[in-house]
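Quick one: structure for this chain?
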Amino acid sequence: MHVKDLLDLKGKVIVVTGGSGQYGKCLVEGLAEAGGTVITTSRDIGSAEQTAAAFQERGLKVFPLELDQGLPESVTAFRERLVSEFEKLDVFVNNAVSRPMKGYKAPIDQFSESMRVNATGMMDLLRQMTELIISSGGGSVINIASMMGMKGPDLSNYEGTNMGDLPPDYFFHNAGLINISRFMAKMHAGKNIRFNCISPGGLFNHQPRPFLDNYCKKVPMRRMANQDDIKGLAVLLASEAGAYINGENILMDGGLNA
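Got it. Here's what it folds into:
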């Protein structure tokens, strides 16, 4: 098969949760540009509709659906609507994350709320989307974690800023996403479904200059990630070009942790 055909997502139905977020928009854009029909989700349907409308103006096939992964009834309703309106699912990009914990010393109930959404709710959604992909004939699951799930924090990045009070739930959640990808790959062997994880480094978002200077001088590429950097990797893992990649975590950090 020609490499352009291997990377073509035409005819694929793809769900990207949290598609209005920073990396979420990059993922939606790249997968739609590769020809996929992309459903972007948010618990705020207005946000999903705004994101979808912006991409539709460019002729991309992006559609909004409401989903709150912290509510089991919302997850079930989302699956039913997905089947009703799109009939199948080929690719699930597990990107949404709630950030209720504001720092290391935050009240412990904020950690509990994070686990309700990011652990229990995520697992409910992951299992349901996995079942739908298998019943559709197979496909790909892409979990979006972070390099923070692989490494402890480099607190020197925050010198000269007021950004250094880091929430532990984010590190806990992303480490779990990396290993649940391996677990699911083994649990569903022989079912024509692949599970992989992308662990990005920081995405440029006009952070304070001291942080940018501290961070970028440690990156061999001398910059943070931009909006295009994750797109090709997501298309690879979603497409037939990545058909023999399974159970992997790919660190995308410009060489920061090399």
